[in-house]
Specification:
It is built from 6 helices and 2 strands, in the order ββαααααα. It is mainly alpha-helical. The protein has a two-stranded antiparallel ribbon.
């Protein structure tokens, strides 16, 4: 899941190589990354690009009606309208935000992470790269986002410490 401002970064020359991958250039921390797309996302992107029409190599992939790069406020306003239209109501005083999708994705990805210290660490590193974090510490924040993840981390830490004492 990507930041809304990342939508302005993919360029036209990045879309012809492999429809299941998108090159996101120069994002928040001046990072460039290759992002895998689910088959349904790749198909949706191909439909959008066919409807949108050809562009030059320097054109952003996502544009507004005047062929300008999407602005964050336009994406946010569209998201807010869709939330209202879908009848989604927040359980807190704060209404759902576009960035909440990113947080939900990260937490769910960690909840589905493989067991075992080595495999979990590799999963965490891959998630950090996928999300465009400058380092893995930014990804560790998501471990604290839900009580079950925090409990799993505590249990794994206790088991590790117990193993260390018995050796």
């Amino acid at each position: 899941m990507h930041r809304a401002q990342d939508l302005r970064s993919p360029e036209a020359d990045d879309r012809g190589r492999d429809p299941r991958r998108l090159l996101i250039r120069e994002t928040k921390f001046r990072k460039t990354r290759l992002v895998p797309l689910h088959d349904t996302a790749a198909a949706g992107l191909q439909r959008y690009l066919a409807r949108r029409g050809p562009g030059s190599d320097d054109d952003p992939v996502f544009i507004d009606k005047r062929n300008r790069p999407l602005r964050y406020i336009a994406v946010k306003e569209t998201f807010d309208r869709l939330v209202d239209k879908a009848g989604i109501r927040s359980t807190s005083a704060r209404r759902p935000r576009l960035h909440d999708l990113r947080h939900t994705f990260a937490v769910r990805a960690l909840q589905g992470s493989p067991t075992g210290r080595g495999r979990c660490g590799a999963h965490m590193a891959a998630l950090a790269t996928y999300m465009g974090h400058v380092n893995i510490y930014a990804t560790y924040w998501y471990l604290e986002a839900t009580p079950d993840l925090l409990r799993d981390v505590a249990t794994a830490g206790e088991a590790f410490m117990s193993e260390g004492r018995s050796s």
